[in-house]
Amino acid sequence: MPPASAWTPGTVRDAAGGLVALTLATFLAVTTEMLPVGLLPAIGHDMQVSDSIAGLLVTVYAFMVAVLAVPLTLLTARFSRKGLLVATLVAYTVGNAVVAVAPDFAVLAAGRAFGGVAHALFFSVSIGYASRLVATAYTGRALALVTAGASAGFVLGVPVSTSLGTALGWRAAFGVLAGVCALAVVIVAVLLPPVPGGGSAHRGEGVGARRTRLAVVSTANAVVYLGQFTVYTFVSVLLLATGLPAASVGPVLLGMGAVGLVGTWFAAATLDRRPRATVLILLSAVTLGLIGVGLAFPAPAGVLAAAVVWGAGFGGVASVFQTAAIRTRGATPEVIGALINSTANIGIGAGAAVGAAVLAGPGLGWLPFSGAVLVLAGLVVVLTARRSFPADP
Q: Which residues contact 280 (CB under 8 A, 6 or more apart)?
């Protein structure tokens, strides 16, 4: 394994081992973050809390990330990138284990909060890591490949864990995930090459404009995630309300994640050639899919058909915002990763809260329309901010 100072960014193939390690780590990070989504009804029933209160397990996790991502990234700028990434996987292991054995809702929430601290640092480091493994011309493809780990979390991690939780209990799902995270610590330590960390932001003429473009990308990122998780946090509740049996929720989430890989593939194929068109197409798909879910609800066939479009669109969203942010050159890759991580989780946490308010107020049928309006607002930002989302890479 070459020392960090000896690593030379090259092609995606040159960095294959490191990208595989980052993809695996991202898979587990997303699975850890999203696992409660498929198990909210079971957790709420077991802990004797409402669905909206159980949804706070997503909110508290996202809140920790939103608040701590940038400060932790700045505080750890001089630390080994590889060491930090491995440490986050250790923390995921501990957090999931605490949740698995939690005697009450307060301890369960504390375990989630601990995982949120790890998550605050994980994506900040991993986004910068992926961009440092390859030359600039391959940034979009590298980030899309690593983001495929996030899509795989939706495709396999969350649905399989949800199915496991339905069959054996939600505690078993978190316990198994803790064991897999522990195994991943070893795998990532072996496969991931060290890269330099820290550094300073790009200086010189135009730095203010670059930072402005980064701020616009980060804002659009937050708004889109807000809309997505206004609905997705309570997707299991939505599916059950269509008449689907509890045992079918996991397989349906598996299908939604599978079509998300289509969006991930599309982003990987086009981001380095037509970045603006890519983000517009994907956000349009998410918006139309959510509107379709709302119009079809509670008919299960229509909801599932619209969810295909919704899931496919969202599958590529993470990589397009990460790539757009990196290409603004408004800060170091790690600080950019922290901003994207933080703003995404502001959207995730606030989305869970907004969704809970909609559930308690207008009702479940309004969730998809509420999410669609917010994603559309993000799409409008992209449409008007041509310098932040340029047509050419």
A: 379, 382, 383
Question: Does residue 205 register a pLDDT over 50?
Answer: no
Angle at 322 between CA 176 and CA 35, to 5 degrees: 20
**Long-range Cβ contacts of 97-103 (<8 Å, 24+ apart):** 97/174, 97/175, 97/178, 99/171, 99/174, 100/171, 100/172, 100/174, 100/175, 100/178, 101/171, 101/175
Nearest Cα residue to 108 out of 40, 66, 47, 63: 47
For domain 9-384, which architecture applies?
Up-down Bundle (1.20)
**What mean pLDDT is predicted for residues 25-41?**
84
Write the CA distances from 75 to 127, 332, 335, integer angstroms.
17, 14, 11
- Looking at residue 154, the DSSP 8-state letter turns out to be I
The Cα-based distances of 7 to 14, 85, 194 in angstroms read 11, 17, 7
User: What pLDDT does residue 355 have?
Assistant: 94
Strands (E) across the chain are located at: none
| Rounded Cα distance, 149 and 18, in Å | 13
Q: Write the CA distances from 206 to 38, 136, 217, 220, 335, integer angstroms.
A: 46, 19, 17, 22, 18
Domain residue ranges in the chain: 9-384
Burial of 251 (C-beta count, 10 Å sphere; 0-12/13-18/19+): middle
Q: Please report which residue ranges of 102-169 form alpha helices under DSSP H.
A: 105-133, 139-152, 158-168
